[in-house]
């Protein structure tokens, strides 16, 4: 059982990554993101997920530095954006992200989206960053099975993580199985489906059964599937509440009931049909 914020998933290269972290998508640069990151670190979080596209790396880095938590205890993730994909441009984009964050290294660097014809060259650059010690682990985001197969056909280093949209309306069972088989850690973005599941009768019923909030039920469901999760919030109280998922377990039949809500329904773009 995953029992606390200090518990970590071990990636395929031996690096340990917290099971629960803070996502900062659409969190404004400056005081808003700094307040959210400070609240998370004060609550015991040790993982923060940002991206160049979010335009808040500077605030994330400042909040981490000023938190008093040693840098080596905080797992920092950022991502290369689509316009920067390619070999030389990825190396440049990484250096810009690293400088904005104000860190010597990044814990996890991800390809944000599988841009056709560019992600393999991007991956070559990420392999170099990994070998040169600038990143502790490299991975991808929004990759389907066929993207992973295509990437791994030529890759020298297997992705450590695949961060995808994952929630009870989009359980992605084949992708989850594929990633397990190849020792690629699945990570959930938008795990709460932007709140759309909070009034779902099954979720509300389980919240009453366990004396938890709908959000806590869904986040615990992620953990029962051994999926790393990064719920986003800018409210300190909600950030603290999202971490209260380690003092209970969902019964197998309740996990199955949540699995049964799957509709292959996305709130984000389709990785096979995006234009940005």
Q: What this model shows, in words?
A:
This protein is α/β, with parallel strands linked by helices and 276 residues long. It has one domain: TIM Barrel. The chain is 38% helix and 15% strand. The chain is built from 10 helices and 10 strands. It has helices at 31-42, 57-66, 87-101, 119-131, 145-154, 173-181, 201-210, 214-224, 236-242, 252-259, and strands at 8-10, 16-18, 22-23, 47-49, 75-80, 106-111, 135-141, 161-165, 185-189, 228-229. The strands form 2 sheets. An 8-stranded parallel sheet has the order 3-4-5-6-7-8-9-10. Strands 1-2 form a two-stranded antiparallel sheet. Helix 3 crosses helix 4 (119-131). The protein is globular. The termini are far apart. The mean pLDDT is 97. Residues 25-262 form the NADP-dependent oxidoreductase domain. InterPro entries: AKR (IPR020471), AKR5G (IPR044500), Aldo/ket_reductase_CS (IPR018170), NAD(P)_OxRdtase_dom_sf (IPR036812), NADP_OxRdtase_dom (IPR023210). Keywords: NADP, Oxidoreductase. Substrate binds at residue 112. GO terms for molecular function: methylglyoxal reductase (NADPH) activity.
Kindly summarize this structure in a few lines:
Its EC number is 1.1.1.283. By secondary structure, the chain is α/β, with parallel strands linked by helices.
